[in-house]
Design brief:
With 487 residues, the protein is α/β, with parallel strands linked by helices. The chain folds into 2 domains: 300 residues, FAD/NAD(P)-binding domain (3-Layer(bba) Sandwich); 102 residues, no CATH class. It is built from 12 helices and 25 strands. A hairpin with a 2-residue loop joins strand 9 and strand 10. The radius of gyration is 22 Å and the shape is globular. The relative contact order is 0.19. Bound molecules: flavin-adenine dinucleotide. The site of flavin-adenine dinucleotide has 35 residues, from helix 1, strand 4, strand 19 and helix 10.
Length: 487
């Protein structure tokens, strides 16, 4: 039976795990990255959420990835808002009743994608939104191949797909060793849990957060009086492609034409890929509680049926969609929210609304400005922010565990804060900070709890990670260089 000793073991290769592996690999750590799926990318690729929404803080590794992808044709682009259901035409009718139509704008640059805060709301601020809100859609397959190739080029990084652990040796607050599903034993002084539900931390029996916390738990005015099991809705994303043959595609037998699971079909966010196809994201396909109650196969089939009915509705109600054909749905559901850890510090609504100028944390390792954004349930909505806020390093440290960080949407966030900070680029930046922290810890012989935080922050800024607002001139200059032939 093989045994392997590494500097760092990372579980899960979604946005967080990819950021962690690239950061640690570049710093020369001997890394093992384990991903249970056959492909890398998690939500942002396997589930087709291949759009980095606009927002502060998407510097560092996300920009490095952007520059590498820019070298390939139709791999990555920047969008502008073309039409939106909340905005009116001159004659007073809605610009786009099905939802949002976001199209590639070749005049835009990556720098244009790095701000969201400042709007009262999307509905009230059309001019602001058109000026500042530009996301980054990309081809998931090209992203997966590019990231895999980059990691494979790093001599000390081992990427194992279709692999996970079956057993965790955990004692005295430390993970000592993992047994993989093939029987192999692997160990490292440090671990990063980048799974979507912090499964590694759960395996060690730690307390988890789930659903909405009560107002009193973290002093959050926007939280309900009592806790609830509510979680954000899930979406099965599908792809449509322009076609010259106009027609309404046949709805497979047994699927109803009307919306059977709610009063009316939901809205959708439709984002153009660089090659002209569209990514269609119903908001949402299924409520979070419903998703949690069903078994995975049934839930996927039900979401597929709903998305087929939805496509039929789009084609019959809005004839412009008759010039498109459906080219398939993604292989797994996009899940916004499950479990979160109890961390040394829990990011809360107060952090998100106070913003960088009012927060007093000495250990900020990423910034973000996405609104508090709830999909589905009785109280959906989006509360925009007036400034970016910071995420402290302590949000990644599970309480009572010494050699593990959580760099994923399962980090130490309240439900409200998670609804803001969960974006893919933010998760990648948490990964970048965690991978870099493992390097600092190894180098200094210190634990995560006792880490030299100024050193971590200096290293992140050297890697062009933005930790303050406005963007420092040195980072702005770096991000201004869209192409770099040496990469
Ligand atoms: C429908 C939808 C739309 C969204 N829209 C946007 C958007 O427009 N822009 C944006 O920026 N964000 C968006 N988000 C949010 C964003 O996509 C996610 O929050 C983010 O990608 C999560 O990244 P992650 O690394 O935390 O987790 P994930 O991407 O879920 O990665 C976790 C990884 O861990 C792996 N894993 C799990 N368990 C194990 C195990 N035991 N062993 C090994 N591997 C394991 C999984 O297979 C997966 O690859 C959206 C989310 C959804 C669901």
């Amino acid at each position: 039976m093989k045994e392997g000793r590494f500097d760092l073991i990372i579980i899960g290769a979604g946005s967080g795990g990819i950021g962690a592996a690239i950061a640690a690999g570049r710093l020369g750590l001997k890394v093992l990255l384990l991903e249970k799926n056959s492909r890398l990318g998690g939500n942002a690729a396997v589930s087709g959420v291949s759009v980095w929404e606009m927002g502060a803080g998407g510097t560092g590794i996300p920009f490095d990835i952007y520059r590498r992808m820019k070298k390939e044709r139709d791999a990555i682009g920047i969008y502008s808002f073309n039409r939106h259901c909340a905005w009116k035409n001159e004659n007073g009718t809605s610009q786009f009743p099905p939802g949002a139509d976001l199209t590639i704008d070749p005049t835009l640059r990556y720098l244009d994608s790095l701000r969201r805060f400042g709007a009262r709301s999307l509905k009230e601020d059309e001019l602001f939104v058109r000026k500042y809100w530009h996301g980054v859609p990309f081809e998931p397959g090209i992203y997966q191949n590019m990231v895999k190739k980059w990691l494979d080029q790093m001599p000390d990084v081992t990427v194992r797909t279709s692999e996970t652990y079956s057993d965790v040796a955990y004692s005295d607050s430390r993970i000592e060793e993992l047994t993989l599903t093939n029987g192999e034993k692997v160990s490292a002084p440090f671990y990063i849990d980048s799974t979507d539900s912090a499964y590694l931390v759960q395996s060690c029996g730690r307390e988890m957060l789930f659903g909405q916390e009560s107002r009193h738990r973290f002093d959050e005015p926007g939280a309900p009086e009592t806790p609830s099991r509510f979680v954000n809705g899930v979406s099965l994303i599908f792809r449509i492609r322009p076609t010259e043959r106009r027609r309404v595609e046949e709805l497979p037998g047994g699927i109803g034409k009307d919306c059977w699971w709610r009063d009316a079909f939901p809205l959708a966010s439709m984002v153009q890929y660089p090659n002209g196809d569209y990514n269609v994201n119903m908001l949402p396909t299924m409520d979070g509680q419903e998703y949690m109650e069903w078994d995975p196969k049934t839930v996927y089939q039900e979401c597929k049926n709903r998305s087929l009915a939805y496509w039929h509705y789009l084609q019959t109600e809005f004839p412009e969609f008759q010039s498109y054909k459906r080219v398939g749905e993604f292989l797994s559901l996009g899940v916004r929210e499950t479990h979160r850890i109890v961390a040394e510090y829990i990011l809360t609504e107060l952090d998100v609304t106070t913003g960088l100028n009012g927060q007093k944390h000495p250990d900020i390792i990423a910034i973000a400005d996405h609104p508090m954004d709830v999909h589905g349930g009785d109280n959906p909505g989006c509360r925009e922010l007036s400034s970016p806020y910071g995420i402290p390093f302590r949000c990644l440290i599970p309480e009572g565990m010494e050699n593990v960080l959580v760099a994923s949407r399962a980090g130490g966030f309240s439900s409200i804060a998670a609804s803001s900070c969960r974006l893919s680029r933010t998760m990648m930046q948490l990964g970048q900070a965690a991978g870099t922290a493992a390097y600092v810890a190894l180098d200094s012989g210190r634990s995560f709890q006792d880490l030299d935080i100024p050193k971590l922050q200096d290293l992140l800024e050297d890697q062009h990670v933005q930790l303050s607002w406005p963007m420092p001139g040195r980072i702005r200059k770096h991000i201004g260089k869209e192409r770099c032939d040496s990469e």
